[in-house]
Design goal:
The protein is built from ten helices and no strands. It has one domain: DhaL domain (Serine Threonine Protein Phosphatase 5, Tetratricopeptide repeat, Alpha Horseshoe), CATH 1.25.40. The longest helix has 21 residues, at 192-212. Helix 4 (62-76) packs antiparallel against helix 5 and helix 7 (130-145) runs parallel beside helix 9. It has 248 residues and is an all-alpha fold. The protein has helices at 3-22, 24-34, 39-55, 62-76, 81-92, 102-120, 130-145, 151-169, 192-212, 231-246. Residues 212-248 are annotated as: Disordered. GO terms for molecular function: glycerone kinase activity. Keywords: Kinase, Transferase. Residues 227-248 have a biased composition (Acidic residues). This is Dihydroxyacetone kinase subunit DhaL.
């Protein structure tokens, strides 16, 4: 395993840290409307600490670097974001034990999504980060495994799908997390967790472009505007949400 993969992970972490610093106030504004107004500060503090940690790990392989990302986020980020992001990075890092390949990156993404859903107990359509991660992961997996696209091309489509998922959170009612306490007043506000997820995915793609080259960068994802999910599961989620909305 060469040093290029290690350098790429550290570069991705640095990009995410810089993006969270740049978007701190924006995330705070989003969270002020439907949360505790601390998501921007938490993500900025967490990834600044992550950057400091991984910068000191010169000889660590990619899986150890990513696991450290998770451990640091759990210890540094308050609220729900710490265990959701951090715990999921920790668990999914095991998929990179043999290095970063198209196949291992798909496995990593799938495990990350699974752990976020398990830890947050949030389905698609609950107005959470799951609404952004789900279409991103599904689009990335399809692009790699079915469409036989290169990772950068697949990531480009995943970013587009993720952005659609973020937009999807604005007109829906929150049924999970702090925003759910607002009921119908949460409608019309973009979810901050979904937004920070988009910043992470964008940073990963930018790093891939740097290390792998541009490739075909057409951003048109084939995912729908509503986050895609297992059909049977999605149908059940929709029926549950309709029932909740009919209650006075």
């Amino acid at each position: 395993m060469g040093t290029t993969e290690q350098e790429a992970v550290r570069a991705a972490v640095e990009r995410v840290a810089d993006r969270m610093a740049d978007e701190k106030e924006y995330l705070t504004d989003l969270d002020s409307a439907i949360g505790d107004a601390d998501h921007g500060a938490n993500m900025n503090r967490g990834f600044r600490a992550v950057h400091e940690k991984v910068s000191e790990m010169d000889d660590a392989p990619p899986d150890e670097l990513v696991k450290t990302v998770g451990i640091t986020l759990v210890s540094e980020v308050g609220g729900a974001a710490g265990p959701l992001y951090g715990g999921s990075f920790m668990t999914a890092s095991a998929e990179l034990g043999d290095g970063i390949t198209a196949e291992s990156s798909v496995a990593f993404a799938e495990v990350f999504l699974e752990k976020v859903k398990d830890r947050g107990d949030a389905p698609v359509g609950a107005k959470t980060m799951v609404d952004a991660i789900t279409p991103a992961v599904h689009t990335y997996k399809k692009s790699i495994e079915e469409d036989d696209l290169k990772p950068v091309e697949a990531l480009t489509k995943a970013v587009d799908a993720c952005e659609r998922g973020v937009n999807f959170t604005t007109p829906i009612r929150a049924t999970k997390g702090r925003a759910s306490y607002l009921g119908w007043r949460s409608v019309g506000h973009q979810d901050p967790g979904a937004t920070s997820t988009l910043f992470i995915v964008k940073s990963i793609r930018e790093t891939a472009v740097e290390y792998l080259g541009d490739g075909d960068l057409e951003p048109d994802a084939t995912s729908p505007t509503v986050p895609d999910e297992d059909p049977a599961e999605a149908e059940g989620d929709e029926e549950e949400q309709e029932t909740e909305q009919e209650e006075p």
